[in-house]
């Protein structure tokens, strides 16, 4: 279903959404952008570059309570997996592709019941990118600068109005229920084709070589000197994995409430770049060197997940580069290993 909405009618549409859903949307904060729950459409920005944390964190939140228990009777332990319906608004294509990856990974057995319940309660309204949002991105190389699934509704800016595509039944129902939309005509569809062509023309590749060969090239560089070099820079702060839209490692904590009778079990985000992440009960740490952890992060995205699911686990949003205080760049790492391979005349 294709429709049109005028710029001036977008806030009216959001007010309609607020009657039925929690609305999560990008807002400006301290000259950056974040996704947060809103009740006032005027606070929402649609032409943002990228947010500090990705929108998937509203489906996979930090410090999420998994169950509640009674110390005196553990048979009364109750899972916490009922959630309010929410609309996550104006999600960029790269982040939609990240949600697609998380859907696939966390549906694998044993599946993550809480993530899947929140996902079923979440409506995704995407916002097409007209051009690159920042310098340190490689979404075009990854094919994630556009999305063909994973959203219910997609907005594309035509310059004076939005072309709106409904991709699911619930998306179609939302548009049909709203009074803010009109049916798209021939000139609107021509405008969409022009916008798509201009988007494709505005992006450039960042990786020097065939990115489909990256997984194989990395495996050949498993013992390469680059990991020691990057490891010497890494501060093991974990910022790269916390902002990553496809990192999902967590720790589980049981906490007794102040009444000393009840308690909660919750999970908090964890990350493979943090020094004690791989420390086991006997004290051994099987990735105690920063170089090993940096290599593991890259291999997890480009080798291990690709082997399991047939696709890279990186969508090229560039957040890990943007937030690394040690200036570690996966673009530089990828190009280093690709250039070395070229030097050997193998690609």
Description:
This protein has 347 residues and is of the alpha+beta class. Helix content is 34%, strand content 21%. It is built from 12 helices and 12 strands. α7 crosses α10 and α8 (226-233) crosses α10 (290-309). The protein is flat and about 65 Å long.
Number of DSSP-assigned strands: 12
* Fraction in helix: 25-40%
Shape: flat
* Main sheet specs: 8 strands, mixed
- The percent range for strand residues is 15-25%
Number of helices: 12
Question: What is the secondary structure topology, with strand pairs?
Answer:
Elements: E1 2-6, H1 10-18, E2 22-29, E3 32-38, E4 64-70, E5 73-79, E6 86-91, H2 93-107, H3 113-120, E7 122-127, H4 139-142, E8 153-157, E9 161-166, H5 169-177, E10 182-183, H6 186-202, H7 214-220, H8 226-233, H9 239-242, E11 250-256, E12 262-269, H10 290-309, H11 319-322, H12 330-343
Parallel strand pairs: 2-6, 6-7, 7-8
Antiparallel strand pairs: 1-9, 1-10, 2-3, 4-5, 4-12, 8-9, 11-12
What's a concise summary of this model?
By secondary structure, this protein is an alpha+beta fold.
Structural descriptors:
347 residues; alpha+beta; eight-stranded mixed β-sheet; four-stranded antiparallel β-sheet; 12 helices; 21% strand; flat
